[in-house]
Amino acid sequence: MERLMTNYFETGAMILFGVGFVTLLFHNNLIKKIIGMNIMDTAVFLFFIAKGAIIGKEAPIIKGTHKGVEGYINPVPTALMLTGIVVAVSVTAFALALTVKLYEKYKTVEIDEIMKMRGD
Question: Which InterPro entries does this UniProt record tie to the protein (predicted)?
Fold first, then answer.
């Protein structure tokens, strides 16, 4: 239990991922599924950023004196997460655009009703 409380960012990320997964799995509303996917994305970003943070080290921005390689964190995981955020926003925008088109055609965003209308 002690390690669980010292790794609270990782614990929070796992809980968020679970909430997003359950939302994605059990709801038939497309908007709720997109929200669940975004919660899962956020959990993954939080987890990787928490793992990349090292207490006592600074961001690799040199102000004044250089502290050497050991004085700074690795900027690559942060850059990858920024790229991931951009991709997640793009996927969300695309999913919402598809949801709008589905609503225009079927007048609902419930997956079960759309499948009934299609005859599947």
Answer: CPA3_antiporter_subunitC, NUOK/Mnh_C1-like
